[in-house]
C-alpha cells in the first residue's frame, strides 16, 4: 500500500461532512495488504469522514505510516483513536496538535494561462515559493508546499485564472523535537 | 525436523493439533479439499464434526468455547461456505468468544477475477472478526495459525479467520513448524499490569460506599474471576447483578445475588442500580440493553469501570475510575485492600424489593414458557449447561433458570442471533460429554438451524432440545402489542411443522406438552432418556409478554413490571 495519496475533491470553502474541529492522526501500521481497509472501516462505522489521507512505506519497510486528517467531535474521535489503536495491525495511533507537531502539505495547481498572463502567474508562484513544473502555451502547473493556510491563500490567488484542477496531498505531520510521530 | 514432504494443508492441520485444538466443526467444499485431505493423511487427535450448514458449524464452535473457555476450529470452503460463517463470526465477535475459522479459497492467481466460488471473505469479515488473514505463502501457515490462536485467546478474545487459497494449502511446505510470532502491534500481557493508583482510588471509593452494587459481565467470566468476585462481594457484603452473559459468574442463588440487570432484568437489580451510590462494573461494556439512556444512567452514583479493552472506556458511560486490565488481575489487586462495609440497611431495602417484585408467572390459562423453564430448573437443580436462542424464551430462561456456575449459560447477547441456541448446545455437549445440556429455543429461532438435528442424532448427543412454540415471533409481537396498537406484522409463524414428527424423521424421540399439568411428567421422561437427543415440544400460549421491561431508550426508573393499561409511546432508543 505504498505511496497512496488521497485528498477530498470538495472545494475548500465547503465544510467537511462531520462538523467539528479538524484533527490530525498519525498511525504506524504493519505494511500488509488490507490495513487501510481495516482503519477506514473504523472511521466510516462511527460516521466520521476522512478529509485527507497519506500512506507511505516507513523507514523500516515492514511498517507504513499513515497521516489521517479528520473532523468531528473530540469525544467520538477519542473512541476512534482507541478502536484504531486496538487493531492488531496498528502499532500506534497518535493525535497531533499544531503545538507539538509540524504540519505541511503540498499541492499541484493546473491553471489555464495564455502567454500574456504568464508573468502574473509566475509572480504569484514566486510569492508563495512555488515552482513551475509544467508549461504549455495555454497552461501551467505550479507546485507549492507549506502550511495549509498558505496553500489555501495561494489557491485563492490563482483563482483569478481559470483553475483547471488541483491535487492536494492533505496534511502530513511530524512530532516536534525527538518525540516519535 | 521434517522427515517427509508436507504440504501447506498438512502443516496447518499439524499446527492446529499442536495447539491443542480438540474439535473442528465444518463443511467441505472444492477449495477446501486439500485441508480435508490433510485431516485424513495427518495423524491427529482432533475430531472433525460435519455440520449441516456452515452457520451451524460456527455456532457449535461458539458453544464449545463458551462452555470451556477454549477455542474450537471451523473449517469451511470458499465463497458461499465462507459467506455462511459471517453471522456466526459476528455473534462470536460481539460476545468476545475465541474461535478459529479457516476457509478454503480460490487459487491466488484467480483472486479478484470472479472465479468459481470466489468471495473476498477477507474483506467481507473485517468488521466481524478480531483479526483475519489471507495466506499467500504455504510456509507462513504455521506462523499464521499460531498467531491466530494467540490473538483469539488472549486479551479480549474474539474470532480470527484465516483464508487459505487452494494452491497455498496444496503447495509444498518447507518452512519452520515452530516459527516466532510476528505481532508488533499486539501485546495482551499489558492487561495483567493493573494501575496501582486506580486500584487505590477504587478501594478508597468503595470504603466510603453506603449503597454499593457490583455489575459483573462477560469480562469477569472470560477472566475466570468468579472466586475473586465472590470474595469481593462477600467481604464487602455488596449485592451483585450480572449482565445476560455474566449469568453464573456469581451464584444466582446466593443471598447477595440480584439476578440479571437490564431491559428484562429483575426489578430489584434495576432498582439497585438506580439507587446505588457506587457501581462497580467488572467486565461489562455498558450495553444499551443495560443502561437505557446513557446520559441518565446511574446519575447519583460514582462509577468504577473495569475492562480489558481500553476502547470500552467512556464509550457509553464516562466512569469516575477506569481500570484497564484483566478482571481477575484487577480484582486480586482490589481484594488486597478491602474491608467489610456496613450495608445491612441497603441489603434489607433490596430484600424488600425482592419480595415486592418477584419473578412470577401464571400456571392457569394455558401453558407458559416460564413454567417449562422453571420446572426444568427445579428438576435438574440448576445443574445443566443451558443454551438459549433469542427472544422472549431467552429472557424467561435468563429469569427462571438460575445459574450458580460460570460457563453454564450460552446465549447470544450482543448480536442477538436467532438460530444460535441449538447448534451452540451441540458444541457444548461435544465439549462436556458428561454434562446435562439443555437447549431452549422458540419456534422461530429453532427453525433457523433445525437441520442440525441430523448432527445431534448422528453423534447421539443427549441434549434436551426444548422448542417453546407459541406460533409467533413473540418478542416482536410483544413490541407491536405494546407500542404499535397491537398491529401484528411479519410475526405469525403459521405453517410451523409438527416438531415431534420432525424429530422422528431424524430418529429422535420426543414429547408434546400442551397442558401445565403435564409438564413435570413429560420433563421427567425427557430427563430419563440418555441414548441421544430428546426433543420437548411445548405448545405455549400465543400472546404472553415478558416483564419487567424497560422500553428501549427509556431510563431504568421507567421500568414496567406488568402490562400497562394505556398505550405506550414508541420507544426512542436502540432496537
Secondary structure elements and pairings:
The complex is a heterodimer of chains A (181) and B (575).
Chain A: E1 4-7, E2 22-30, H1 35-45, E3 50-57, E4 63-71, H2 74-85, E5 90-96, E6 101-112, H3 118-127, E7 131-135, E8 139-146, H4 148-158, E9 162-168, E10 172-175
Antiparallel strand pairs in A: 1-3, 2-4, 2-5, 3-4, 6-8, 6-9, 6-10, 7-8
Chain B: E1 6-7, H1 8-18, E2 23-26, H2 33-41, E3 47-50, H3 54-68, E4 73-76, H4 80-83, H5 86-94, E5 99-105, H6 121-125, E6 131-134, H7 141-153, E7 159-165, H8 166-170, E8 172-173, H9 196-207, E9 212-216, H10 218-222, H11 226-236, E10 240-242, E11 257-260, H12 267-275, E12 278-282, H13 288-291, E13 302-307, E14 321-324, H14 327-335, H15 344-356, H16 369-380, E15 385-388, H17 392-400, E16 409-410, H18 421-431, E17 437-442, H19 443-448, H20 453-458, E18 464-469, H21 474-483, H22 499-505, E19 510-513, H23 519-527, E20 534-539
Helix pairs in contact in B: 1-2, 1-7, 3-5, 3-18, 11-14, 12-15, 16-17, 16-23
Tally of structural domains of chain B = 3
Strands of chain A, count: 10
CATH architecture of the largest domain in chain A: 2-Layer Sandwich
Class by alpha and beta content of chain B: alpha/beta
The end-to-end distance of chain B, rounded to whole angstroms, is 56 Å
Label the structural class of chain A: alpha+beta
Main CATH class of the largest domain in chain A: Alpha Beta
Summarize the largest interface: chains and residue counts. Answer: A-B, 23 and 18 residues
Tally of contiguous helical segments of chain B? 23
Main sheet record of chain A:
5 strands, antiparallel
Instruction: Give the % helix of chain B.
Output: 25-40%
The oligomeric state of the chains shown is: heterodimer
Count of the domains of chain A = 2
The value of Rg of chain A in angstroms is: 18 Å
Strand content of chain A: 35-45%
